[in-house]
């Protein structure tokens, strides 16, 4: 780890007034600083800022500094969000990690975290080692010739499925962005992962009211039961009336370069009977546009099965 200056601003205005890297729970930033993947000169501990609170009176509003474990346990939080949080990391990390930090965590691609190997996300123009290297855990959807790294957040998948927004602030004001639009496809610039502008800070996450999101869930498939990132995951919310699907929200993780909304699956579900056969038919289009690699083509069938499993759970 390289030397850095640490400050602790007392107000949001103070934090936004000077350049630096924000530190909340530190569960991602500190790891990457130890590996010299990230080498900020100025780190600002923002834990004293008034960016907390959980409000479920009309939809869901979550302060960016709320801890993952507190949000997961809060009554009124949609089940898909709570499950996504409880299936993330470990209890110790969930007690430390902030909601805003979780949405900004960097990929767990081994090549990104190894400064001795080429990685366009870490060092633009150096190449993507995963294209011809070990790529079992890498993405099928949203990839490019420059990057095939998966997005790491479980929470973001559930939030994208539920049309969440993020509130962003800088020294000149604030703005609101749909989380689905916040993340960027890698294209030729995989180092640009999201729409966060220099000097901006996530202050709040807002999930619109969706009464039928009470019938929602999150399914995560991984190599081991705990403290492991997803090989594939799915967040679903279903509006079922008279045994038919009136509306649906489906997003997946572990298989894409960003939280991936499956609009074609949602369209196939609308009007269909709430049966396993209909869920299988809808999931058959989940892999449209996928580009499997030498080591991860098993995710093609895994993605479909994971979506079906989540739809069955969400329909109960």
Could you give a quick summary of the protein structure above?
The protein has 316 residues and is α+β, with helices and mostly antiparallel strands.
What report would you give on this structure?
By secondary structure, the chain is an alpha+beta fold. The chain has a domain at 212-315: CO dehydrogenase flavoprotein, C-terminal domain (Enolase-like, domain 1, 2-Layer Sandwich), CATH 3.30.390. Helix content is 27%, strand content 20%. The protein has 12 helices and 12 strands. The strands form 3 sheets. Strands 4-5-8-6-7 form a 5-stranded antiparallel β-sheet. The protein has a 4-stranded antiparallel β-sheet with strand order 9-10-11-12. Strand 10 (232-241) and strand 11 form a beta hairpin. Helix 4 packs antiparallel against helix 8 and helix 11 runs antiparallel to helix 12. The longest helix has 17 residues, at 299-315. The model has no long low-confidence stretch (mean pLDDT 97). Keywords: Oxidoreductase. Residues 1-212 form the FAD-binding PCMH-type domain. It comes from Actinoallomurus bryophytorum.
């Amino acid at each position: 780890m390289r030397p850095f200056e640490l400050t602790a601003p007392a107000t949001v205005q103070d934090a936004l007034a000077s350049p630096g890297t924000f530190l909340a729970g530190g569960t991602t930033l500190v790891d990457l600083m130890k590996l010299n993947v990230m080498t900020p000169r100025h780190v600002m501990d923002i834990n004293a800022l008034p960016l907390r609170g959980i409000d479920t009176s009309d939809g869901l509003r979550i302060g960016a500094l709320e801890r993952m474990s507190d949000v997961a346990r809060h009554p009124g939080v949609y089940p898909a969000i709570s499950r996504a949080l409880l299936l993330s990391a470990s209890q110790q990390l969930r007690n430390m990690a902030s909601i805003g930090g979780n949405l900004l965590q960097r990929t767990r691609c081994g090549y990104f975290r190894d400064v001795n190997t080429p990685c366009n996300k870490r060092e633009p123009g150096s190449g993507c080692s995963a294209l011809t290297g070990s790529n079992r855990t890498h993405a099928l959807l949203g990839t490019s010739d420059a990057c095939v790294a998966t997005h790491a957040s479980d929470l973001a998948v559930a939030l994208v499925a539920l049309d969440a927004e993020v509130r962003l602030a800088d020294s000149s004001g604030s703005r609101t962005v749909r989380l689905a639009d916040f993340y960027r496809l890698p294209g030729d610039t995989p180092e640009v992962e999201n729409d966060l502008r220099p000097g901006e800070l996530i202050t709040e996450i807002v999930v619109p009211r969706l009464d039928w999101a009470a019938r929602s869930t999150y399914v995560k498939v991984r190599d081991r039961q705990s403290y492991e990132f997803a090989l594939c995951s799915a967040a679903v919310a279903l509006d079922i009336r008279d045994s038919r699907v009136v509306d649906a929200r489906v997003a997946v993780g572990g298989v894409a370069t960003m939280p991936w909304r499956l609009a074609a699956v949602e369209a196939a579900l609308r009007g269909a009977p709430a049966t396993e056969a209909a869920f299988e038919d809808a999931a058959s289009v989940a892999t449209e546009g996928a580009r499997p690699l030498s080591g991860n083509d098993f995710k093609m069938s895994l993605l479909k099965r994971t979506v079906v499993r989540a739809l069955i759970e969400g329909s109960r």
